[in-house]
Amino acid sequence: MIATMGFSFGSVAALPSIGGLATESAMVAFIQPSTALQLIAFAILLGGIYGLVALGLTMIFGVMDVINFAHGAMMVVGMYTVWWTATAFGLHPILSIPLAVLGLFALGVLVHLTTISSIMDAPQENQLIVTFGIMLILISAIEITFSTDPQSLGLGLGSVAIAGVFLPLGQLYALLIAISAVVVVWLFLQRTQLGRAIRGTADDRTAAQYVGINVPRIDYLTFGIGAALAGLAGAVIPLFQQINPYLGDSYLINAFVIVVLGGLGSFPGALLGGLIVGFVHVFGQYYLPGSGYQISIFLIFILVLLLKPEGLLGGGVSE
């Protein structure tokens, strides 16, 4: 069984045990094309979801210069929205995903108008404390409403084999949804008047005000879109794993790494960073003992900070 942060990939008979591989076993695995292809497939699946998690985070920072510590908690709200609507009303989980996205957009706008807007010009540590407080409130509300017990949809979607490569359908659906979301958001930013206003605000907030852009309106819409993307990232997770109120924190840690790796505010960078972390996570967990894969992720993170502090594709939301 290959599992990354609960991201279960199912059993693959062709793959030897992950934990504590001997050097000889590792060398054999490296020269087996089927093993390499299987790990690459898993890495792309995980990397795509990581990229989706990072998209909302990098959009909020790129436009508003706000680091949103509540992003993981908003993911959790998206997870439980899908789980609750599916179990309480019998709604298919795929149909529940748009409800999670809309609900998180509304929640994001509400959070911005009631808290973030008043501290936009405050020191960044104030913003961190406020978003951390929002995170605690959201997680506590989930705990009180649904308890801390793990929950599962129990879909059992199975898998599909393509050219001998095992692809779990839950993760595959999540990846396709992530790709679709990236395309839609990119087209929105590039082809619509509102999207161009968001890009203009990200480039220069003062100049945007001078040309007539309503920057406060752009701010709450951007925070709402970022929250909606967090909700979407959370909404796809019940398709392939159990959920609990603390799961968002696990994804959020690596999402911050991804945002910095790709470049603060860069959409392409978030996707590239997600794939890098996905590959390091899967291959590292397979070939390294214990939590060696997480150490590898942070070593790459530190190396990029030292050699290219602006990130691999730093450039902002406008690119």
TrEMBL record:
CDD domains: TM_PBP1_LivH_like. Keywords: Amino-acid transport, Cell membrane, Membrane, Transmembrane, Transmembrane helix, Transport. One of its GO terms (biological process) is amino acid transport. The chain crosses the membrane at residues 38-61, 73-91, 97-116, 128-148, 160-189, 220-240, 252-279, 286-307. Coiled coil: none annotated. InterPro entries: ABC_transp_permease, BCAA_transport_permease. This is Inner-membrane translocator. It comes from Natrinema versiforme JCM 10478. The lineage of its organism: Archaea, Methanobacteriati, Methanobacteriota, Stenosarchaea group, Halobacteria.
